[in-house]
Amino acid sequence: MKAEIVTIGDELLIGQTVDTNSAFMGSELSAIGFNVIQITSISDKREMILRTLGEKLGKADVVLITGGLGPTSDDITKQTLCEFFETKLVMNAEVLAIIEKMMAKRNYPVNENNRRQAEVPESCKVIPNTAGTAPGMWFEKEGTIFISMPGVPHEMKHIMNEHVIPELKKRFTSQHIIHKNIMTYGTFEAKLAEILTDFEAGLPDNIKLAYLPSAGVIKLRLTGSGSNREEVAKSIQYQVDKLYQIIPGLIFSENEETLEMVVGRLLVKNGKTLCCAESCTGGEISHLITSVPGSSGYFMGSVVSYSNESKTSILDVPKETIIRYGAVSRETVEKMAEGARKRFKTDFAIATSGIAGPDGGTPEKPVGTVWISISSDKKTISEKFTYGNDRVINIRRFSYAALNLLRQQIIS
Fold it and tell me: How far apart are CA 55 and CA 354, in angstroms?
């Protein structure tokens, strides 16, 4: 079963509005067994809408459309749909009643623009929209279903959840699609793909593997399809078990559990506490940790010791250490971690010192270099990492590297 998504609006093309509708619709369609083969964003132009819809005929079983259904003169989708489906606009009494009731509840009069929203193409099946004033519309032509919905996200979601998905499930029940995400950290995409060459070659035809990298974290998405949901789920789980055998040291969680979530869960499980001493990461690690609900139960605080003076005065790093080895060094970062753990009286401490860029590097310590230390009551360890030249990306990669290093220490 194939589906396509079309979003209409100049605001999407110029970056004024971020298209979150497609992500939601794609996820919902996939969950009921559709293969979304294309997402298209187009301008509010009659010719563009007509051409795009014409290209979808016969290509997909279902085409979802959002946008251009508002009450103003620049919303031309309904008129263009009439032209495409060779019909005309008519007043729909049920839609008008919904609009009148909604406007009365808000103590607003129904004006001509509101009334125009009750006009729908005569040949469509009207989809009620009790979350807004613009109804959804269901068309069928040459074996393809076209469903037009408002671009307002909460209205689109209401129509999808209450009407579109239930109806599509009635009509299309032969296919099930299951996604399973395995979260990994500790290598780069090309290397991971090399490691998994034989694994990927051995996948059955109904299971596909995708690599989704972001700031060092690589999400492996296994997608399985078939007519028997239970069998698909078993097949996916069998492949997941194989991944745990091949790359056990790289997998840190499943689905959308982040490194900061995993670290928090491990700290709670082991009854441990944490603090940070951040230089080059500027509080990013602390931000990630405290973004997790319940982090106040294990995170005691942080020092952003950006200057050498703060490293010595707050974290008790000896001046001689910084003079002899430099701020970006194993010796300095270990003293930072030990000083933070002592000050906050925690079980673990993370410390970072590096060169985020774009300036400040040397041949010995180029931009992208970071030293990370984890201190505990058992030992203090440190490791050097070298990344690229982009400051923002480096800060995020430094932070994830630190969280992963902490994770490894907790479970060791």
Answer: 52
Cα 127 to Cα 112, 162, 163, 164, 337, distances in angstroms = 21, 10, 7, 8, 60
Same domain, 27 and 162: yes
Q: Which backbone phi and psi does 85 adopt, to 5 degrees?
A: -100, 10
Q: Crossing angle for the helix pair 77-84 and 46-56, nearest 10 degrees?
A: 50
If one counts the domains in the chain, the total is: 3
* Tokens standing for residue 191: 């290397």
Same domain membership, residue 203 and residue 166: no
> What confidence score (pLDDT) does residue 133 get?
81
Q: Tell me the CATH number at 370.
A: 3.90.950.20
Q: How many residues does the chain have?
A: 412
Range of the domain at 214: 176-254
Per residue in 233-269, pLDDT (tens digit) is 999 999 999 999 999 999 999 988 999 999 999 999 9
Select from 136, 171, 206 the last residue of a domain: 171
**Residues forming beta bridges with residue 36, ordered by sequence position:** 3
119 and 62 belong to one structural domain: yes
Q: Looking at the structure, tell me whether residues 182 and 308 fall in a common domain.
A: no
> What does the pLDDT look like over 185-234, one tens digit per residue?
999 999 999 999 999 999 999 999 999 999 899 999 999 989 898 999 99
Buried/exposed code over 227-257 (b: 16+ C-beta within 10 A; e: otherwise): eeeeebeebbeebbeebeeebeebbbbeeee
> 349, 375 in Cβ contact below 8 A?
yes
Would you say 172 and 32 are in contact if contact means Cβ atoms under 8 Å apart? yes
Res. 74 pLDDT band, cuts 50 70 90: low
